[in-house]
TrEMBL record:
Region Disordered, annotated ranges: 1-20
Protein's name according to its UniProt entry: Abc transporter g family member 40
Gene3D superfamilies: P-loop containing nucleotide triphosphate hydrolases (3.40.50.300)
Lineage, opening ranks: Eukaryota, Viridiplantae, Streptophyta, Embryophyta, Tracheophyta
Gene name, Swiss-Prot/TrEMBL: ABCG40_4
MF (Gene Ontology): ATP binding; ATP hydrolysis activity
Transmembrane segments: none
Amino acid sequence: MCRSRRRSSSSARSGAEIEASRNGKRGMVLPFDQHSITFDDIIYSVDMPQEMKSQGVIEDKLVLLKGVSGAFRPGVHTALMGVSGAGKTTLMDVLAGRKTGGYIEGNITISGFPKNQETFARISGYCEQNDIHSPHVTVYESLLYSAWLRLSSEVDSETRKVGI
Ligand SMILES: Nc1ncnc2c1ncn2[C@@H]1O[C@H](COP(=O)(O)OP(=O)(O)O)[C@@H](O)[C@H]1O
Ligand SMILES: [Mg+2]
């Protein structure tokens, strides 16, 4: 699902950059690693909306995801399907760390390691449902465009194509 891009800075060069300079290559090298993401028994709830309370609902929490498990693997194009309102976007937002409110339970791992949001945000890209998508580009082109926008302007067009 996600491809990692190690950050480079003048003070901390990545292993790939150092290796590239040893090999006599110049410029920035983008090392892409593929990772899997697994999620186990994800429960996501929010405080009960006032509108529902005023209609007589007595529970304090509204559970939107009830024990959802699965995995996204590199090279496997995965479709998440369900009727409108099933919770597809909610699940993707929870996995991507885009939920700012609510209560998340369960385990999320990245290639077997517990997900750390700070690291995950650096190595992954997420095109949201609410992003403005052009009907004239393919899904692949949309992802490519999003990924390229995240690269530094120092990265030349040839290097940008690495990892496609
Ligand atoms: N913050 C929230 N408070 C209350 N209900 C919510 C909240 N976020 C999502 N929902 C509800 O959760 C359900 C799942 O929504 P969503 O994930 O957008 O579905 P999908 O993407 O599958 O169409 C919907 O019924 C939606 O109204
Ligand atoms: Mg949706």
